[in-house]
């Protein structure tokens, strides 16, 4: 498993890049910049997977105190924020030539930036909350509350904030992807980025586990030296 | 239930005897109103349109301060440990604290809302019943999340910045809902605010239940 995932990720990533840059026809209205869309949308999917994994792992951790679940929650939050940041970086690159502005407060953008802030604050809590074991529990509570917030954010930004139908219709995946190759490219890109996200999470979980083992060893070593002295 | 009532009375009587939290929150509320109104610098005819955003931005920031105080008090002399060994269910502690916070925030609203009307040239009397519904929904939703996260923030390092950091992103849908509902209410009544009120009710119910269920995991040691 340790070797298979990076290899498969690499193949999928090369395939996605080849499809996006060599095979897919250039979109007629938007031009070359539309090609960023494949990685933009795929990153958003991976970010969502990460955020839901945080909630699931957090619930398991609160239920049975499993260290593995806690490490998975932390890894998923980091990877989720990473991919959410990619969404927020690739979006404006596309928006500037198409909409004429880097940023608008359209429902999707509003939602993405709120989600980013929620999980960035989750990482802050873990990083600056202190060494106490209880911080993991607080983070788990935040992970669950965060995912409960997602549907309310979605509904509130859609119902209550100004709608820009033309913009959204063009941003929508289904209506824009006229060529079948576009759909295939989107699918392959999504698979590639989800594989990449999973690999990163796996590495991050292992790093967390090794870090904990290291701390235990150091602790034992100090205790042993204390006895000798 | 009786435990919750005891906690509720305890928090309010501490507040009544010192009046420290409430008075600082009221003055901060006034100051934020002044700051936001002055910063907008709107001509008199444009001022009423600012009311929803000024009102709820003021509410969020003064509320953050007020709610955090309720738990900082419990830290002194390890009062929270005392609460936890007492024969009161953690969920009941949450309900009692939530009730006390809602009461304090309501007093703050009682003070801030007329000032919004005064500063921004609004006659609030005709829409008062509908406005009270929106104020209560916003108050309860805010308190439901803030009570849970105040308990977290006072027990971690960097606690002064932690509460706004954790809470503000989660509260954005509440802010969107309350501002939109207030705008509709001021424009004509509750009938225009159905969508926003639905969002607020959903927010209140979901996070009150979540807070009630999750509070035990926050305070247990």
List keywords for this structure.
heterodimer, A: 229 residues, mainly alpha, 83% helix, B: 221 residues, 82% helix, globular
Walkthrough of the structure:
The complex is a heterodimer of chains A (229) and B (221). Chain A has one domain (4-228). The radius of gyration of chain A is 21 Å and the shape is globular. Chain A has eight helices and no strands. Chain A has helices at residues 4-23, 37-64, 67-99, 107-128, 134-160, 165-171, 173-176, 180-228. Chain B is mainly alpha-helical and 221 residues long. Chain B has one domain (2-219). Chain B is globular and about 55 Å long. The chains are: A mainly alpha (229), B mainly alpha (221).
Structural class of chain A: mainly alpha
Oligomerization state: heterodimer
| Shape call of chain A | globular
State the distance separating the first and last CA atoms of chain B.
23 Å
Beta strand % of chain A: under 5%
Element-level helix/strand string of chain A: HHHHHHHH
Share of β-strand residues of chain B: under 5%
Outline the biggest β-sheet of chain B. none
Estimated helix fraction of chain A: over 70%
- Going by helix content, strand content and strand pairing, the class of chain B is mainly alpha
SSE run of chain B: HHHHHHHH
**Greatest interface:** A-B, 31 and 31 residues
């Amino acid at each position: 498993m340790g070797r298979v995932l990076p290899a498969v990720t690499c193949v999928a990533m090369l395939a996605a890049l080849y499809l996006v840059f060599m095979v897919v026809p250039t979109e007629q209205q938007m031009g070359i910049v539309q090609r960023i869309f494949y990685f933009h949308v795929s990153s958003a999917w991976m970010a969502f997977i990460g955020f839901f994994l945080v909630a699931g792992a957090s619930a398991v951790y609160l239920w049975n105190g499993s260290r593995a679940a806690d490490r998975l929650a932390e890894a998923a939050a980091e990877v989720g924020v990473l991919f959410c940041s990619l969404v927020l970086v690739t979006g404006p690159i596309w928006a500037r030539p198409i909409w004429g502005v880097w940023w608008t407060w359209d429902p999707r953008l509003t939602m993405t930036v709120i989600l980013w802030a929620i999980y960035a604050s989750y990482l802050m809590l873990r990083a600056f909350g202190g060494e106490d074991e209880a911080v993991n529990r607080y983070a788990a509570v935040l992970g669950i509350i965060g995912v409960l917030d997602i549907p309310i954010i979605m509904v509130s930004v859609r119902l209550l904030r100004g709608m820009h139908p033309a913009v959204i219709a063009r941003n929508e995946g289904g209506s824009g992807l006229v060529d079948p190759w576009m759909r295939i490219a989107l699918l392959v890109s999504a698979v590639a980025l989800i594989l990449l996200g999973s690999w990163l999470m796996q590495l991050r979980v292992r790093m967390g586990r090794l870090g904990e083992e290291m701390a235990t060893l150091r602790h034992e070593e100090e205790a042993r030296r204390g006895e000798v002295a | 239930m009786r435990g919750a009532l005891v906690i509720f009375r305890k928090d309010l009587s501490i507040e009544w005897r010192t009046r420290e939290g409430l008075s600082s929150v009221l003055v901060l509320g006034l100051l934020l109103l002044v700051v936001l109104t002055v910063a907008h610098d709107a001509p008199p005819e444009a001022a009423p349109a600012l009311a929803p955003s000024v009102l709820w931005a003021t509410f969020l920031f003064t509320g953050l301060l007020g709610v955090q105080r309720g738990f900082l008090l419990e830290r002194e002399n390890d009062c929270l440990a005392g609460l936890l060994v007492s024969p009161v269910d953690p969920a009941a502690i949450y309900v009692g604290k939530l009730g006390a916070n809602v009461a304090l925030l309501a007093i703050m609203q009682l003070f801030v809302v007329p000032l919004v009307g005064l500063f921004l040239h609004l006659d609030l009397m005709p829409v008062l019943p509908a406005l009270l519904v929106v104020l209560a929904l916003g108050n309860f939703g805010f308190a439901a999340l803030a009570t849970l996260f105040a308990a977290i923030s006072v027990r971690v390092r960097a606690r002064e910045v932690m509460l706004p950091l954790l809470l503000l992103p989660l509260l954005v849908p509440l802010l969107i809902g309350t501002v939109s509902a207030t705008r509709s209410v001021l424009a004509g009544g509750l009938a225009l605010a159905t969508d926003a009120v639905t969002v607020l009710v959903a927010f209140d119910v979901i996070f009150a239940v979540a807070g009630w269920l999750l509070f035990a995991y926050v305070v247990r040691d």
